[in-house]
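Need a sequence for this fold. Nothing fancy.
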């Protein structure tokens, strides 16, 4: 049983060392932030377009009254 625990410990330790040595580990945060900002900008642009279209549609005189 102790052999399995020691093997598991060594595997976990070696994976942690490999992950710490990887220089690419900080790029995911930047990617997530940029993607979130782009999504917020897209939602804002769509909201502006919908508001302008709604105002234009409401200003059309159909001659019904």
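Here you go.
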């Amino acid at each position: 049983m102790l052999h399995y625990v020691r093997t598991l410990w060594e595997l976990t330790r070696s994976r942690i060392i490999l992950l710490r040595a990887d220089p690419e580990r900080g790029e995911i945060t930047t990617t997530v932030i940029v993607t979130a900002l782009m999504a917020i900008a897209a939602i804002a642009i769509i909201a502006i377009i919908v508001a302008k279209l709604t105002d234009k549609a409401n200003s059309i005189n159909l001659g019904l009254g």
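For context: The chain has a mean pLDDT of 88.
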